[in-house]
Design goal:
Helices cover 74% and strands 2% of the residues. By secondary structure, it is an all-alpha fold. Strand 1 and strand 2 form a beta hairpin. Helix 1 packs across helix 2 (40-69) and helix 6 (112-137) runs antiparallel to helix 7 (149-178). The radius of gyration is 17 Å and the shape is globular.
């Protein structure tokens, strides 16, 4: 294995470890899951620094780790199909898409800071979509009587994901301005 690949694997492992630790530091937590944390930050940074291949791989592995450590959530689903949906939407797709940050950051030409913030916001929205779909399709039975599952899922997930995405974008900008070497592309 060459030195560059070893560095990427080690960097990915460190980002996964940081994401996991940050997932435990909750600024706000909802009773049925979902919280405001900085968990997405290392995964977004991995994507920004190393491109979508390594960013998505890192997010995918983090999703597997979160799934294994929180597997009891999957078991709340009544059917095998809903369990598979939970695994895909709440864990694998939700975290894998965070690695696409560089793809969207590169859409903003001439301003790397705003590009990084844009990339962070877009992948945060993709993660929100995964949470929304999961809430609507799998967890809709938790909606209060008389409230549609779509409306409930959108409101519930937006209540923590929108602040999470805003905080993520602000921290990415702060990191870019105060420690640009951290945000520099490695690929």
């Amino acid at each position: 294995m060459n030195q560059a690949k070893t560095r990427l694997i080690v960097e990915g492992a460190l980002m996964i470890a940081m994401a996991y630790v940050l997932s435990m530091i909750k600024f706000f937590e909802l009773p049925q899951g979902g919280s405001i944390t900085l968990e997405m930050l290392p995964l977004v940074v991995m994507g920004l620094r190393n491109g979508p291949k390594w960013g998505c791989l890192t997010g995918f592995v983090h999703g597997i780790l979160q799934m294994i450590l929180g597997f009891s959530n999957v078991l709340y689903c009544a059917t095998l199909l809903s369990q598979l949906g939970c695994i895909l939407l709440d864990y694998l797709l939700a975290f894998t898409c965070l690695g696409l940050s560089a793809v969207f950051a590169d859409r903003i030409k001439g301003n790397k800071v705003m590009g990084a913030a844009f990339g962070a916001v877009v992948v945060g929205i993709l993660r929100f979509i995964c949470s929304f779909l999961s809430g609507w399709l799998l967890w809709g039975s938790y909606a209060p009587e008389g409230t549609s599952a779509v409306v409930y899922s959108f409101g519930y997930n937006a209540s923590y994901m929108i602040p999470d995405i805003i905080i993520l974008a602000v921290v990415v900008v702060i990191l870019y301005k105060t420690a640009p070497q951290i945000m520099r592309k490695a690929y």
